[in-house]
Specification:
Blueprint: H1 2-16, H2 29-35, H3 40-44, H4 55-62, H5 65-71
């Protein structure tokens, strides 16, 4: 079993530049979406050539920025109600590679970005 997971991770690294399903790596949003039964075509479209996913697709399921700001209102400062306005979701949240704290370029708040 360990052999197959290693082989799977190697294939993911070669094709996407990321690992997944590893106990040593943080979970990826692709794993979260898969566990919630969200199929790839729900975001990328039902085509042989998957289309890039824009913020409009994320917002269609997760609500508008106002809803996100309400959900993260206890985070100080609120990452969804800030001086940057409404940056693209992919600025911080990544599906196929680890997400990152987009504010860290200027600030050290220690956000844990899902």
């Amino acid at each position: 079993m360990r052999y197959w997971i290693g082989l799977f991770n190697l294939a993911l690294l070669l094709f996407t530049g990321t690992f997944s399903l590893s106990q040593s790596s943080p979970p990826l949003l692709i794993d979260t979406h898969t566990k919630a039964d969200v199929e790839c075509k729900a975001c990328h479209g039902a085509t042989d050539a998957p289309k890039p996913v824009g913020m409009d697709v994320c917002i269609s399921c997760h609500g508008g920025y106002e809803k996100l700001a309400e959900q993260t209102k206890t985070v100080t400062p609120n990452p969804h109600d800030n001086h940057l306005g409404k940056p693209e979701c992919a600025t911080c949240h990544h599906i196929h590679k680890p997400s990152e704290d987009g504010c860290r370029a200027c600030h050290e708040w220690g956000y844990k970005t899902p």
